[in-house]
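Handout, section B. The chain below has 105 residues.
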Amino acid sequence: MVAVGQDNFDSEVLEAEGLVLVDFWSDGCEPCKALMPDIEELSKKYKNQVKFTTFNVLHGRRLAIKQGVLGLPTVALYKDGEKLDEVITPTVSKSAIEEMIKKHI
């Protein structure tokens, strides 16, 4: 998984070709931390179809808000720089994220 922030969000997500999943999280978000192993597992399962990234919103709140992230955890799926779909709190779960991925691959 690629850690993205303000410096490389555009190049790693918005300018990337194909599907890119962004896990928006923060250090103080316990549900975000609990979800990380599930996202890591999904990244291994779908590594040939989806690029997985993580974005700590504490290092780019304005960018997160610009991307429509209003609560955590939020997991968004982009394709060719456009946001296709997202799973947001309180419905975010491993199964919901995998369902979103399968819908777009």
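Note. The chain is about 35% helix and 30% strand. Compare this with the example in section A.
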